[in-house]
Amino acid sequence: MKKFVSALIAALLVVACSKQEAVAPAAPAPAAATAEAKGPSPDGTPHIAVAPDGTHVQYRTYGSGEPALVFIHGWSCDSNYWREQVPEFRKKYTVVTVDLAGHGGTDGARSDWSIARFGQDVQTALSAVPNEKLILVGHSMGGPVAIEAARLMKSRVIGIIGVDTFKTIGAPTPSKAQVDAIIKPFETDFIGHTRSLVGEHFFAKGGNAALAGKIAYDMSLSPPKVAIPSLRATLEYDYAGPLRDISVPIVAINSDLGEPTNEARIRKVLPKFHAVTLAGDGHFLMMEDPARFNPALETEIRSLLGGS
Length: 308
Description:
Helices cover 40% and strands 15% of the residues. Strands 1-2-4-3-5-6-7-8 form an 8-stranded mixed β-sheet, with helices on both faces. The longest helix has 18 residues. It is globular.
């Protein structure tokens, strides 16, 4: 049982693998949808961009300057989970936060909950942002979503920074039976299982209990019709094909919760990959420990800019 629980937590925290086709780039939107093409207001006002499937994708922009930092939330979260980063990084960069379909302020009127489709949500939002250079910052599920977005946006993306993600790159793909076993408790009692799993396993011992309780409660309120298929898509995501399509630097800022980041294995797929580990933090390290996380993120941004 202990081994199974460990595998389950690792799968949910670090995102495992399955084959995923890239979605075609978004077609030019109608004039009404692109009225902000010269640049949406930088004060955090919510804006809407329309995805090819008609989904109204909500995003916000803050600050100004190159590059734009694009913050992509994880499974059953929303853009508010980056609230400790926006005030700091808007001082010198354009900051963009995106709510993926079915999360936050973006509607959930779709049936395709693949990682590729989430990547298209990011591309849709960025079509109205004029910055030439983008750095994608993805937490958990947002890591593979960033990879899919980079496949679509090509040369605009100069780097990807994962946050407690990418740990399973190069690892064996989980079987259907393993994925089914992880999904089943969510299908049986989504609210109860989500609260138990997040509250008990996504935070380090002695961590912020109030924050853990709030996040567990918040995530448990996600619509199961969105959360369950998107969780399956996350668990089944296969990095191999998508990573062959992009050549941008990919790094990670990870916690030491659960499985360690096996950089040697990951470098067999991504030779220049490296990870920074913030020991003692949990899965939501950008919220739990912004005093350490923000400087670590700034260091990785500067490194990417130096190499661009």
